[in-house]
Amino acid sequence: MLIDIFAVLLLSITVLGTQDPTRLNPRDLDLGEHQRNVPSSGGIAARTITNARRLKADSSLGASKRRGDSAASTWCQGHLKLAMGDDENYGFVGKESNAFGEFTLATHEDDRLLVRLDMSTAMWRPIGIDLVDGPEPSLPFMAGIVGFSSTSQDLTLDSSNYIYLGASGAPTALSNSAQAGITSFSEATGISESFETVIFSYDHDGCFDILWVNDDSSEIKAFLGVVDQDGSTMIATGNKEMFEHEFGPTSWVNLSFVSKP
Predict the structure, then answer these.
(1) Which pLDDT score, from 0 to 100, does residue 24 have?
(2) What's this model's pTM, rounded to 2 decimal places?
(3) Most buried among 101, 158, 168, 244, using CB within 10 Å?
């Protein structure tokens, strides 16, 4: 009996001991010492895409063009709402960033981030989201930024890798994997992590899925969460259970767009 109790306690200590939310971001001793092999921002090779993907991306197919080009764009301003389940309001993406340049949760209307997006394009392919009143005017694009403790810039079903929601100085191309460049994270920490911007895909439920492109050109739908440790840091990952095992309890939320009146 005592052996069984000891085994249970040992297992509990082993499992709980792996959870360390502080590893989500660099500590002081990490600043300037962290290097990851990231592609040069000037050397991104164009991905080979099929005709079906070109059609989806509004690329040319011979002399034909997809119906509904930029003339039919519908640009809207509004806020990004977070919800748990169907209707439970969890808050909004806030206009302020934390010490690491990552967007945080806002629970008051005055603190909501104002964004601009093309809803007509969002109906048929992933889009980027422009920041209207972000924390830094020189970083006008919402970006998924590779997490500091991720082992690579890929999000997968069998890893705890994650991305932050932050801002970037330039957009990335549709269907391209992560690239190097200036982000809110690099400006805040001095550490370069790759990023993607065209990752928001509107689904039939009125929410935005986060579609991340890996190095091998595969796409994965990531889960968006707010880490419970501080109650405000927003991340996205390919495996909820493995992420929580590494970094602790997380509230998983849906992302939707609320138009400005």
Answers:
(1) 82
(2) 0.78
(3) 168
Phi, psi of 138 (to 5 degrees): -80, -5
In whole angstroms, give the CA distance from residue 123 to residue 98.
32
Find all residues with CB under 8 Å of 14, minimum gap 6, and list them.
Answer: none
pLDDT tens for each residue of 80-128? 999 997 667 899 999 999 999 999 999 999 999 999 999 999 989 999 9
- The residue assigned the tokens 């919800």 is 83
Give the separation between CA 219 and CA 200, rounded to whole angstroms. 12
> For residues 239 and 160, what is the distance between their CA atoms, to the nearest angstrom?
6
* Alpha carbon 93 to its chain's center: 12
| CA–CA separation, 142 and 131 (whole Å) | 6
Q: What is the DSSP letter of 186?
A: H
The whole-angstrom separation of Cα 254 and Cα 129 is 16
Query: How far is 55 from 51, CA to CA, in rounded Å?
Result: 6
50: which residues sit within 8 A by CB, 6+ positions away?
A: none
Which residue shows structure tokens 């405000």? 232
- Three-class DSSP category at 123: coil
Residue type at position 127: I
Q: Which residues contact 108 (CB under 8 A, 6 or more apart)?
A: none
